[in-house]
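Supplementary Methods S3. Input chains for the assembly prediction are listed below.
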Amino acid sequence: MDTIVITGASSGIGLETALLLTQYGYNIIGIGRSEYKCKQANEWIISKNPKAKIKFYLADLLHQREVVRVAEQIIQYLNENCNGKLHAIINNAGCVRSWYMTTDEGYEHQFALNHLAGFLLTYKLLPALIKAKGRVIMTGSESHKGIKINWDNIMLYRRYNPLVAYKQSKLCNMLFAKGLNERYAAEGIHAYVVDPGLVNTDIGNKETGMLVNFIWSLRKRYGVSPAVPAKTYAFLCEQSPPPDGLYYYLCKEKKYSRQVTSQNADRLFALSERLCGIQYGKVQKL
Ligand SMILES: NC(=O)c1ccc[n+]([C@@H]2O[C@H](COP(=O)([O-])OP(=O)(O)OC[C@H]3O[C@@H](n4cnc5c(N)ncnc54)[C@H](OP(=O)(O)O)[C@@H]3O)[C@@H](O)[C@H]2O)c1
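Predicted structure tokens for the full assembly:
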């Protein structure tokens, strides 16, 4: 049975994707930050699919020490139960903020969770992914378009605009996936970004101010159920051989921003490696 790690599996898109992938017969490792919500999510999945193979690990992925800790737990689990192999990682945990907030490391929240957490977690799990010729799937967004990376002020500290920070973090998802494909295609790795579309979840109602909360409460009513984008993740996990292409919406390839270049991907890799204290060229053996 192939194993898939899903971050942000305790609600919204990650939760529905976890359920659907258990129905396809995958062994799912969900990551969430709240013990209560992970327990609820686990019970909900089992109630829908009594045969589900699912377990949750707790980690606040805003903080790098937590990313590293949970990665170590997962590696141990994979070594003991899955022959050290990981079929896919779905870097889906994400947040929206209303104002400038920083992690313990001093990194802006949306950049830290939406980009750096997946960058670091994938690095830590890469040996297991390579062993399985696995897939890396990012939850991106159409909002990655119409923006450039602010290389001189990546945390957007000066004149912080939360929407710009969100859009930039989603452009980082695209550049990360592109850079992974360019570095690890020869090892059998395939990296993708899923655009889920507008989805009816509570993302804009968590840790946001009154205005964002209010706007999102109205906007999300026009969103589809998280069960809709879940099908695209299942498609990308299931296809054999893995499809080419980078950016997917409703199980089909889609055009992406012209900012998604090899040069920008290389630049983001170098910067993110420095911020995480890792070097992608140097992957530890299991
Ligand atoms: N909804 C949309 O229309 C839309 C559109 C485009 C892209 N997206 C992207 O879709 C992804 C999932 O979002 P969603 O809409 O499904 O929202 P959601 O329901 O709020 O899901 C976000 C998930 O991330 C988890 N999370 C948040 N902060 C975390 C942290 N510090 N550490 C670990 N996990 C954390 C949440 O945990 P809790 O359950 O504890 O809150 C939840 O499981 C995000 O990357 C988002 O940017 C969403």
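The longest strand covers residues 27-32. The mean pLDDT is 97.
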